[in-house]
Amino acid sequence: MILMHDITRDGNPVLRQVAKPLTFPLSDEYKKLADEMMQYLIDSQDPKIAEKHQLRAGVGLAAPQVGKSIQMAALLVPNDKGEIIFKEVFVNPKILSESVRKACLAEGEGCLSVDKDIEGYVPRPDKLKIRYYTVDGEEKTIRLKDYPAIVASHEIDHLNGHLFYDRINKENPFSLAEDTIVIS
Ligand code: SB7
Ligand code: NI
Questions:
Q1: Among 71, 129, 154, 166, fewest CB within 10 Å belongs to which?
Q2: Which residue ranges have their beta carbon within 6 Å of ligand 1?
Q3: In whole angstroms, what is the distance from residue 134 CA to residue 91 CA?
Q4: Nearest alpha carbon to residue 139 among 93, 98, 86
Q5: Cα(81)–Cα(50) distance, rounded to whole angstroms?
Q6: Nearest protein Cα to ligand 1, atom 1
Q7: Domains and CATH numbers, the chain
Q8: Which residues are known binding-site members?
Q9: Quick one: which residues bind Fe cation (predicted)?
């Protein structure tokens, strides 16, 4: 089971590295890692289990956050009713195209690897077209928008060595481009 003490924290160089692509078939070790990363998200979103193991809730988890510099990230995105609207493990994800229009979360973002709260809007593309491989090696091309797109962008950023606060405007953390939508 992945626990909070397994999560790499800001300052660990692995979070700033470009993660390496994987080849298929995945090793048993990497398949197990994918399962464990998804299980962390499931457990972290269950209030009882999260409380018991002191897990911080997460909607995504990228392999560098558990110390592995590989192109793998798990996403488990609920809607405001708590229903899961997107569940997947991305292997070797690539952004094929993105909207010019940006979106950001009204409450800003946090990260399991960043212990302090950092305020400010985190503008990201509102729409993404992504190609990735599943754990079983199936190639998929999908389009995401709004919240699931924001989560996917946050996770793909991790695979490229970026953290959410890199995208916050340093002069004015709450400044927004004309057409950026704020999601609440
Ligand atoms: C807010 C939070 C996340 C993604 C997008 C907006 C995920 C937080 C958990 N993680 O640190 C995953 O990398
Ligand atoms: Ni993160």
A1: 166
A2: 58-62, 65, 105, 109-113, 150-151, 154-155, 158
A3: 6
A4: 93
A5: 18
A6: 109
A7: 4-182 (3.90.45.10)
A8: 111, 154, 158
A9: 111, 154, 158
